[in-house]
Amino acid sequence: MSSIDKNARYRSSHEWARKDGARIVAGISDHAQDALGDIVFIELPAVGKTLKQGEAFGVVESVKAASDVYMPMSGKILSVNGTLTGDPALVNKEPYTGGWLIAFEPTNPAEWDGLLTPVAYEAEAGKE
Amino acid sequence: MNLIPEPLAFELSSPGRVGVSLPTCDVPVTAVPASLRRAELKLPELDELTVVRHFTRLSQKNFSIDTHFYPLGSCTMKYNPKANEVAAAQPGWKGAHPLVSDDRNQGAIELIYRLQESLKAIGGFAGVSVQPAAGAHGELAGVFMIRAYHLAHGNPGRVKMLIPDSAHGTNPASCTMAGLTTVTIPSDAEGGVDLDALKAACDDTVAGIMITNPSTIGLFERNIEKIAKMIHDAGGLVYGDGANMNALTGVLRPADVGIDVMHFNLHKTFSTPHGGGGPGVGMVGAAPVLAEYLPGPIAVEKNGKFSMEMPAKGIGRMKAFNGNFGVLVRAYTYIRMLGEEGMRRLAESAVLNANYIKVKMEKVYPVKYPRRCMHEFVAMGNFVDGIHTLDIAKRMIDYGYHPPTIYFPLIVPEALMVEPTETESKETLDAFIDVMLKIAEEAKTQPELLHDAPHNTPIGRLDEVAAARNPMLCYRS
Amino acid sequence: MPFIPNTNADREAMLAAIGVKSVEELFSDIPAGKRFPKLGLPAGLSELEALREIEALAAKNLSASSNAWFLGAGAYNHFIPAAVPALASRGEFLSAYTPYQPEVSQGTLQAIFEYQSMAAELLGMDTVNASHYDGATALAEAVLMAVNAGGASRPRIMVPAALHPEYKEVLRTYLAAFTVNIDEYTEVPALAAKKCDERTSCFVASYPDFEGRVHDLSGVADAVHGAGAVFAVNADPIMLGLLSSPGSFGADIVTAEGQALGNSMNYGGPFLGMMGVTQKFVRKMPGRIVGQAFDHDGRRGFVLTLSAREQHIRREKAVSNICSNQGLVMLQTTIYLEALGKSGLKAVAELCWNKAHYAAKAIAAVPGFAVAEGTFFKEFVVKTPVPAKEIVDKLERRGVVPGLELSRYYPKRTHELLVCVTEMNTKAQIDLLAQSLKEASV
């Protein structure tokens, strides 16, 4: 059974978003990392890039699969998790903490309310 | 199999050794300006015998058709007759240059012409081009042709290609390269194209459909004529992925059921060697509607004279010069030896062999679509808890069989795709079936034998995760 | 039939096991009216008959095996050591499949790894893939990489006017779906590169160019990178045995036609598309790549890696649709490079250089003929006093293939001949060429 961060909100494409002051931190869920398997490479966006909600901001690769990852909300990239370049397995080990992918400044904070709650996401991921 | 570790050539190198003698310079020397000279060239230094032993030993670390049975679904690993190699090694081919004028390359062009005519006959097509260098390259040519057709007919908005979910990954990838978007069409309960979903996708943005028939699950698409009509009625064109032509030679001409353009994999159907990954050839055939868009040059005959000509409306060149000519010679040799009767016999035997294995194996290995198959079938390897298809595949190696294609097509979980081809005897098939049943038994009684397999190979299962995380792609001293 | 072993008795037994009466029954899914058509192919031939027929066809071509050969222009006549075909034609290499099962494919995989290592050194790149269809498609895919990296705001591609004409054609085919401008430059690369701007995605240099000229590429990389574009070089790999690698000039992507490295001309194929990149582009490079790996006992092996770039995983988002590589051709090149080694490849390149320069002097001394100016390696343009096509037609009847008349690609350039000289040409052949040119022009 995969774990869930109760303080985060989710997209059905398995990204999570969490408020950290005014910024939003995002990554992929435990369910997603488990489905992908051992992650070998992560491509992250340039800092300063502005992306819309639902737009792909990067790619997460395992040996046998590759998955685009999508913006949970519209925003401007403030920072990316550089540690992952040398240690992509962090996403497998700590998807909600050390394995975060990006932090961004939301350009439409109201989008937060449209994201899935932990309960709703758990129900949806459980169906797969 | 040679189990002894073979060092890299760099590790065998010793300063001052050389493996080839070259003539001494018989003309006055011209100084090379120092500014142009490269500083160093770190290639290995080996004597000839060391090179010969090195590659001979390496060859012994491979499975191959010449040494092992390869029931590799979708890949059609048939025997490559030795006559093909003799035919291709003629000095008149090896030393022929593509830019010598056509009247002094008449033999080469005539051979291309004859091969074109043969594939026109086998596929029912109006025109054929030898340009594409592989199946995927042929697909790319085909979708370029479809795009060019729509543009020539004032329909730049036809950019949507429909692709069944069982398709090879090259289909959607080719579309992207040709500037088309793809829409995935689901399979129905019998493994065919879902006609309702297809109908819903047919609008005035449709460029066409890319369909593999027999499909990648080894079943003949019974609705093929209906599908072609739906696409044609919607203003689209039908691309046939000819990867599975081995089931149809002399049985059905694809153009007769509405295929407008199709590639032939000469390295599958027409017995040219896979060579550990290539070279292939993906000759494209086209119905009258698309024939003038074929890539060129194409061999043309006029009053007994042969020439290479560019089709006037063609999409252009897919590669430099005249296709993978050496491979064309091999395929032509095979077709010439088989002839009319042999073509049909080929497909019949391929289908018979596949159905024979299927009937014997399906009692133990579940088959998702239990219909009678064509030249291959897809079983599943997850009939014992804790055992995966990968484990079965690796255990087969211990018994001297190359694993089938696994985990493809994506629509069958734990897929194990078996294709024997027509060149295998009943004795080979029986021995293979016995081993498959034995492995199924081991899966229940001694699962560790499967988990740890293979046992008798130069290396065991490799840590592919570590290899991809920290890629080491070149020798570093 | 020798390739279809089952006898009628075997077929009967198998049909019975399946539970059908005839083979035809297995094809009941095929539309009835279209089943088992008459193809109109001739009847099959025995091996002996088929080979006789094909040998007769092969003998109708002009072959480098029995002529004094000075024609290159993208397909080259070089020496192939006996060990190369002898080893590459072993059934274990020839009839093996793509090495998706590493435990039973270490021969092929290790050979690819050795190829990648040697080709990377030769081109001066960090990583080389397991090959493309040919030099032209390798270059087209390199340009596509740059176009995709540059995005919509960089639609301009700069290529030399003197890029091989067929490479240009392939480039146009591959780029048909992209909104790009292919700008052809006529200056030397060092000057042309200064014209790269913020709309340029790719600057291509040909080293040497189609007319044989070897340009100094110093300074190009700074200008191209300064504009934010990608610097791609198409190179002659034999030349790199002697002259500086494109990597040493700061190229990002290097492509080459590898046919010359141990493969016959074969009427134009199969050839070998070489592609190498710097570290920055490894995960954007198309094609198979082999990497080193270890098993649980710590034994070293090799495996296809970085597959997430490829079509079987990424489908419509893959970096390319390429699925195969030129396996056997690449293997021949691997054996060739190891047999020649460090000193051998350099010696071949020096022979080409010396003989080509001797030939250029000999031809320039023939009244009415002139050799184009500039640095060259093994190919150069000769200005002819009579149409070059006439010279070619005359000399080829006498067993001398003098080169390519440039009018084949450039109809107005009627009096120019592209001559190629390699280690295969003896002094006697070169003297014969000069003498024959003299005779053909009067």
Mean residue pLDDT of chain B? 96
CATH architecture name of the domain at 84-338 in chain B: 3-Layer(aba) Sandwich
Percent helix among the residues of chain B?
A: 25-40%
Share of residues in strands of chain A? 25-35%
- Number of helices in the DSSP assignment of chain B: 16
**What is the strand arrangement across the widest sheet of chain B?**
1-7-6-5-4-2-3
CATH class bucket of the domain at 84-338 in chain B = Alpha Beta
- The domain tally of chain A reads 1
Oligomer: heterotrimer
Output the structural class of chain B.
Answer: alpha/beta
Unreliable sequence segments of chain B: none
The CATH topology of chain A is given as OB fold (Dihydrolipoamide Acetyltransferase, E2P)
Strand order of the largest sheet of chain A: 1-2-3-9-8-5
Topology:
The complex is a heterotrimer of chains A (128), B (477) and C (442).
Chain A: E1 9-10, E2 15-20, E3 23-28, H1 30-36, E4 39-43, E5 50-51, E6 56-62, E7 66-70, E8 75-80, H2 83-86, H3 90-93, E9 102-106, H4 118-126
Antiparallel strand pairs in A: 1-2, 2-3, 3-9, 4-6, 5-8, 6-7, 8-9
Chain B: H1 9-12, H2 48-59, H3 82-88, H4 91-94, H5 106-123, E1 127-129, H6 135-152, E2 160-164, H7 170-177, E3 181-185, H8 195-201, E4 206-212, H9 224-233, E5 237-242, E6 261-265, H10 266-269, E7 282-286, H11 288-291, E8 298-302, E9 305-309, H12 325-361, E10 377-380, H13 389-398, E11 405-406, E12 415-418, H14 426-445, H15 447-451, H16 464-469
Chain C: H1 8-18, H2 47-58, E1 68-69, H3 83-88, H4 91-94, H5 106-123, E2 127-128, H6 135-150, E3 156-160, H7 165-174, E4 181-185, H8 189-192, E5 200-207, H9 220-226, E6 230-235, E7 253-257, E8 273-277, E9 290-294, E10 300-304, H10 311-314, H11 327-364, E11 370-371, E12 379-383, H12 388-396, E13 400-401, E14 404-405, E15 416-420, H13 427-440
Parallel strand pairs in C: 1-13, 3-4, 3-5, 5-6, 6-7
Antiparallel strand pairs in C: 2-8, 7-8, 9-10, 11-12, 12-15, 14-15
Helix pairs in contact in C: 5-11, 6-7, 11-13
